[in-house]
DNA sequence: GGGCGATAACTAT
DNA sequence: TTCCAATAGTTATCGCCC
C-alpha cells in the first residue's frame, strides 16, 4: 500500500488525497506494500507498471469509479470535520474519554497469546519441494490471481492478490507455480500438531496462521516450579522452541508474535518476518509505547478504505487515533469509533475461547467465468454452483434459510439478491430453483442484456441439520400423531384459508396461511400450550409464530373461543400487470412474488405454460385454479381451472402445470423440452395425462392425501436419515446423523445506530470482529 | 420512534 | 493474448409493527 511507501505522496501530508487523481492511477489500485519483504520498494515505478498494464480495462474503469465515489465521501467527511466547532469537538472528546474509562478496566494482561504465521507458506512449500525455485522470483497461483510470492518476487512488487499477468509485467522472470492444496493441508496439519503440544485449544485462522494461548503451558511447565522466573524470557524461549520444532518437522520457517492479546500478537508476528519473533511485554507502559508508533494499516481490520478515511483526517498512526478521538466520535458510527478506541488502547481478545466458540454464519460457492449474457450458460453455471453448495452443506450437516445470489457484471459491478426460504434446507432442488428464479428475474428486469462474469450462491441463517432435522421431525411426528388421534382434519383447496397462523408471543394475532405444509407448533407459556393442547416440547419458544390447523378440534375450539381477539386479515385483489389477472393476495409481498413469477415465465417462454417452483407456486396455482382465470391461461400462466378440464386438456400441448425443477429445460431458450407433470403440492411425478394430474392435485389437497401422509408417518421417521423429507414444498432435510458441530440459528445483531447526518455512511469494516 | 427482520452492500484476508 | 479470486463476516438501510 502506498501509505507505507517512503516515496508515495501521502507521506507528504495526511490531508492529501493520496494517489487519487494523480498520474499513478486510483489509490485503490496502488500496490499495497504492507507485507513483509516489501519495504523500501520503488512504489512509484511499480504503480506505473501496474497502471500501464491495467489502464483502459473494465477492471481499471471500475476501480476508478469506485475511487471517485470514495473521494466524494472523503471530501464530504473533510468538510464535515471542518464544520465542527471547538465546543463540539471538546464535548465529543469528553465523551470519548468516558469511553476510555469504560474500556480500560476490561484490559487483561494475564494471558500470553502467540500468533504463529508461516512464512510465505504456499511458496515456501513449493520451494522446499523444488530446490531450483529457491533463488528465483516465484509465486503460487495462476495467471488470473496469485496467492502468494516468495521474497525474491516481492522485491519486484509481486505479491499476493495480484493477477499473474501483472506479476509478469513487474517481473518478467517470475515463475508461477500452480496451487497444490492437498500438499499445503498436509503440512498445515503437521504444524498444528506441534502447536497442539503448547495449546490444545489453539485457534487456526487458516492453513498458515493460528493463535495460541500458552498461559497454561507456561504455568504448568515453569512458573509452578519457580515463581521468580522471568516469564517474559521463558515465553520467548518456549515460542522459539516451538518454531524450531515446526521447522524440524516441515523444513519450513514460521514467525511469531507474543503479546497479551490477539490483536497485538498479530501485529508482532509481522515485525520480524521471516523466521523471527517479537515479544511485547504485558505491561501498560510497553503496550502504549508500542501502539502509539504503530501505523494504522498494520492493524488487522484496517484495509484500503478504512486507511483512506483515516488518512483524510490526518491519522496515519495509532497515536493519532487518540489525539483525534473527538473527531472520530463525531464522524463515525458507534461501532467504528468504539473499534478505533480499542485499537488506540491496544486492547484485544485475551482469551481464545470466544473465538473457538464461533459458529459458521454462511457458506458459499462462487465462480468467475468469461463474461456472458447467454441465459442457458448462466443457468447451467447457477445449477452447478447450487449442486456443489448443496453437496458441501450435506457433507457438513448444515442447512440454511437465506439464499443469496451474487452477480458480478462484466463491468465488475457486484449485485446481491437474497431470498428467505420458507424452511431451512440444503436441498439442491430448492437452492437451484430459487437461485434460478432470482437470476431470471434479474435478467428480465435489467436494462438491456445482463452480461455477467461471476455468479455465486450463498446460504446463511445456518443451523445444524441433525439438530434442526430432529426438532422438525418431532414436530411433524407430533402433528401427525395428533391428526391420527383426532381425525378431524379436512384439507380441501377451499379450506386452505382456514389454516391459521397464531403469533402467541404477540397476543394471538391470527393470520391466514396459504401453505398447508408450513406447520410448526410452538407455545410460549404452559397456559398457551394447554389452550392449544400442545405437547410440552413446544414450550419455551418466545414469540414464536404458531401455525395451526383449523381442523384440529382442540385448536379450532381455542380459536373459536378467542375469535374476537384475532385480527384475521382480509385478502386483497390486485391486477397483475403481466398476466392481467386479478390476483388475491394477503400482502404486497405475495403480489410481488406473483409478479416475479409472471415476469419470469412470461419473458422466458411465451408460448409455454410453466409453473414456477417458487416459494408460492402452490399459492399461484391455487389462485388460478380457483379463479379459472382466462387471462392467466392465455398469458402463459398455469391457470387451468379444475372446473374447466376440457380447456385444460386443450392446452396440454402447452406443458401445463409442470415444475421446472423436474423437467428437462432447454436452458438455451428457457423452454420445456419434455413433458413431465409434477404435482405442485407433493412434488411427486405424476401421469402425463392432465386430467389425472388435476385429479391428483385435488386429492393431494384433500383429506385422502392427508390420510396417505399419515400412513407414511412411520416411513417418514424411518427414512429421516436418508435426507429430504417429502413434505409438500418443504424439502426439509431431516437427518439423524450426530455431529459435534452445532450451528444454532445465526441471530442477527441489532441494526446500526448513529444516524447523524454527519456520520460517514458506508464505513463498515470488520474491526468489530476483534471485540466480543 | 424503537425493535426487528429482510436484504443490499461493504470490507477483509 | 491474457486484463484482477473465493469465501466469510459485518454493517447499513428500509419497511413493518407495536
UniProtKB/TrEMBL annotation:
Protein's GO biological process: DNA repair; DNA replication; error-prone translesion synthesis
Transferase listed as a keyword: yes
Domain of life, per lineage: Eukaryota
Principal EC category: transferase
EC number, UniProt record: 2.7.7.7
Biased composition (Basic residues): 1-10, 744-760
UmuC domain mapped to chain residues: 113-303
Protein name (record): DNA polymerase kappa
